[in-house]
Every structure is written in C-alpha cells, then in structure tokens.
From TrEMBL:
Residues 1-20 form the signal peptide. This is Nucleotide exchange factor SIL1. One of its GO terms (biological process) is protein transport. GO terms for molecular function: adenyl-nucleotide exchange factor activity. It is found in: Endoplasmic reticulum lumen. GO terms for cellular component: endoplasmic reticulum lumen. Keywords: Coiled coil, Endoplasmic reticulum, Glycoprotein, Protein transport, Signal, Translocation, Transport. The lineage of its organism: Eukaryota, Metazoa, Ecdysozoa, Arthropoda, Hexapoda. InterPro entries: ARM-like, ARM-type_fold, Hsp70_NEF-Inhibitors.
Length: 433
C-alpha cells in the first residue's frame, strides 16, 4: 500500500523560502491547493505538500484554527500524513528516487526540495513515535477513524467546543477523501467500520451542511471505480440515502457531490441500477431537473441518466461476444424507458431546455451536456419531443446562433444540434427544416 502514485507530503511548514525581491515571484496562497512555480517565494506558515508524481510543490493557507493551533493534538493530526506517507521504512529512499527520476524538475528546484527535506528530516526526528505508529495507509486510516471517534467523547467532556469539533471532523474527512481514492484503502476503511460509524451518520443525520457535503464526497471517492466498495455501500442502503438528498436539497455543492456519489455507486453495477432506479432513484434524478438549482447541476443529472442509457446500449450491443452473459442479461432487464417515462422525464427535459434558452446561449459547455443527453434518450422521448414546436424552436435558435461564429467549439455543437434535429424531426416534418 505504498503511496507511490500520488501526493506525498502534507505538513505545516514553519520555514520560508524567499527568493528574489520581485513581488511577482511571491506565491499567493488561497484556501485551495496551488502549484508553486519554480523560483517562487513562499511565505511562512502554509500547508505545503509535494506531488510525488509530478515532483511539483503545492501550497495552501492554513485554516484559522490550524494557524492558531499550537497544541499537540492538532499538530499531531497534520503530521500523521508525514508519518504515514513519507517516513515509513525505506520511504526516504523512495522519495529521493522519485524526485531524481522526475524530469519535470529543474536542478534549482530540486536543490530547494532537497533543502526542504532537511526540514522534513528534522520533523522526522521529533516525531519518531508517530512514524512507528503509522507505517502504512491502512494504519493511517485506522488512526483517523480512532481520532474521529474520540471527538464525541472530547465534546462530552467539554474539552472541545462544537466549532472545534466540526473543524477537526472536516480535516479528517478531507484526509479520508484523499486516501480512499485508492481501492485497497477504501476497502480497509469500510472493513474498519468507517462507512457505518463515520460516513453514514453524517450523510443521513448531520445538520451541518459542510460536514454532510464532505461526507457525501468521501462516499463518492470510496465507491468510484471500486466494485467491491460499490457492493458494500449498496448493501448499506446508500442509494436511497443519496436519492433522498437529491430529492430534498437545493444546495449546489450538496447536489453536485450527491450526483457524483450516486454515479460512483451505480455505474457498471446492474443490480444497483435495477434496485435503485426502479424505485426512488429515477424520480430523484428527474427531480433535480425540475427544482430551483443551478443549470450545471441539472446538466450533471441529465448526464448521469444519459450515461446509464448508453451503458446499457453498449453492454447489450456487445452481447454476442460478451464474456459476461449474466451482466448482459441483468442490463437487458433494466427497464429504463419505462422508469423514465413514468416519471415524466421527456416532458421535464422538454420544458427545461425550452425555457432556459437564453441562459444556455451563453454557456456552450452546458449546451453540449444537454444536447448529448437529448441524443442518448432520443429513442425513449422522440414521440414527446417531436411534437413540441417550442423545443424545436429552441434547438434551431441555439444552432443558428452558434453556426456563424468563429469558435470551433460552438461550431461543433451547432453541427451536433443539426444532427439531433434531423433525427428528431426528419420522419415527421422534413420540409419545414
Ligand atoms: C510582473 O512582471 C511583469 C513582467 O515582468 C510586469 O509587467 C508586471 O508589472 C509585474 N507585476 C507585478 C505585480 O509586479
Ligand atoms: C483518544 O483519546 C484518548 C484519551 O483521551 C487518548 O489517549 C488517545 O490517544 C486518543 N486517540 C486518538 C487517536 O486521538
Ligand atoms: C439517524 O438518527 C436516527 C434517530 O436518532 C437513528 O435511529 C438512526 O440510526 C440514525 N442513522 C444513522 C445512519 O446513523
């Protein structure tokens, strides 16, 4: 479980790299991770990490709480990553190899990174105990779960305020989000009870929206391209919890992360598709198309529906040479057309696209999602859509607007719309087009 691929080091940097007086060269930190360019000076007191794959350094601001934190507890939290990812047995060597093999580094920045490693080595000295505690990602995850569980007790003991507790919870979730992208890590986290003890209670019952959103995102990371984790999450009824969020929320962040998690759970998992989309799942996805929320969230929802339709088509079209006839049979039983129709999918998309014309004109990237979604569901919805002059008017307006601009992206979309219009209306009203 070595962390060879990804981001390696996370620590609180107490030192500054100052090079040059040029104001231009100073790194301007924000709350997001940003790459530090060669020769940029970095102010003291930032989170710094090194992407072991690219060899590039990244930095972001400490949160207020971390900034003020001088007590051991929080420093320990920040350093567990160092212990886990960098200072396991032989890890110093691994790290150096990675750095030397990397051809993205100038000698100058390599030197700088090596200087930094002296500092890491000093940290290493002072946190020997932690290194022994966290040799692997698995131990790191176990530690994070234990730390999380401790929080409730500390809150009960009044050694931690609710605000402080939430901040630590968010930090733990962020670390987990990053760790569980790896398949083995995700399975370990689930085996250690992380899903039931941390994620589900937050997803289902938490009132703080930041915590809820973060937990849903971890859920998405856990199940993304991870069939075993998908099965375990499915068994815990995660699908209907996510459907519930999609039905009730109007928050962009929350809807986006729920759609991400929903897609991760369902993709390439015909049993879950069958169970979840035949019940509340389809309704939930279509509800997103109808509710008051940002158009980009609606585009995501339509894209997920469209992906499932395409996935089914692909599996069935490969049926003959499929090495998994059972899966093909399962896909054959997905009655997507019926589920979508009984939830007024075609009418909803029709109204949505027709009524959002002017918003869409300015956002060709969203238009592309919508047109692709329309294309994938044309067989299901043709009888509804082809009868509506308003939809055709909208499509033609966007097409005409995009057809005559010096912008290849818009031009491509115009051509895509042209094909769609042909498919939709050709058999009905050939001449009018
Ligand atoms: C940054 O550098 C460029 C070119 O070297 C210069 O034109 C610009 O004014 C500088 N900006 C600042 C904020 O110093
Ligand atoms: C949990 O709390 C106990 C007692 O306060 C402490 O000894 C232990 O180190 C804590 N564990 C973690 C992982 O924070
Ligand atoms: C949510 O809260 C209810 C009521 O307190 C509880 O019965 C249920 O087990 C909780 N759900 C989860 C997943 O923690």
């Amino acid at each position: 479980m070595k962390f060879a691929l990804s981001l390696g080091i996370l620590l609180i940097c107490e030192f500054a790299i100052t090079s040059g007086k040029d104001e231009n060269k100073t790194f301007h930190a924000t709350n997001e991770w940003q790459e530090i360019n060669d020769g940029q000076g970095v102010p003291a007191g930032l989170h710094i990490r090194i992407n072991l794959q690219t060899g590039k350094k990244e930095a972001k601001l400490l949160s207020d709480e971390e900034d003020e934190a001088k007590d051991h507890h929080r420093n320990e939290g920040a350093l567990t990553n160092v212990g886990g990812n960098v200072y396991g047995t032989n890890l110093k060597e691994t790290t150096n190899n990675n750095l030397e093999n990397s051809n993205t580094l100038s000698p100058e920045s390599l030197k700088k990174i090596k200087e930094n490693f002296k500092t890491y080595n000093e940290l290493k000295e002072s946190y020997k105990e932690l290194q022994q505690k966290f040799q692997t990602d698995a131990e790191l995850i176990t530690g994070l779960i234990a730390e999380y569980k401790n929080l409730s007790r500390e809150e009960r003991d009044h050694s931690l305020s609710l605000q402080e507790k939430i901040k630590v919870q968010l930090r733990i979730l962020e670390d987990l989000d990053y760790l569980v992208h790896q398949i083995d890590n995700a399975l370990w986290f689930i085996d250690m009870g992380g899903l039931e003890q941390i994620i589900l209670p937050l997803v289902v019952n938490e009132t703080n929206i930041n915590l809820r959103v973060k937990a849903v995102r971890v859920l998405g990371a856990l199940t993304h391209n991870n069939p075993k984790a998908q099965i375990k999450a499915f068994e815990k009824n995660v699908g209907s919890h996510l459907a519930q969020i999609l039905l009730s929320s109007t928050n962009t962040e929350e809807l986006s992360s729920a759609l991400y998690a929903f897609g991760s759970l369902l993709r390439k998992f015909p049993l879950a598709l069958q169970r979840i989309l035949s019940t509340s799942g389809t309704q939930a996805l279509i509800a997103v198309l109808e509710k008051e929320c940002e158009l980009k969230v609606k585009a995501k929802s339509l894209t997920l529906i469209s992906d499932v339709i395409v996935e089914k088509k692909l599996v069935l079209s490969n049926y003959a040479d499929s090495d998994n006839p059972l899966a093909a049979a399962q896909y054959a039983e997905l009655n997507l057309a019926e589920w979508l129709k009984s939830n007024a999918f075609c009418e909803t998309v029709d109204v949505l696209v027709s009524s959002k014309l002017y918003e869409l004109l300015d956002q060709p990237d969203l238009v592309e999602y919508f047109i692709t979604g329309l294309e994938s569901s044309i067989e299901i919805c043709q009888s509804v859509w082809s009868k509506n002059p308003q939809l055709r008017h909208t499509l033609l307006t966007i097409k005409n607007r995009y057809m005559y601009v010096q912008d290849e992206f818009r031009l491509e979309i115009a051509q895509q719309i042209e094909r769609l219009i042909k498919d939709l209306y050709n058999s009905i009203n050939h001449e009018e087009l």
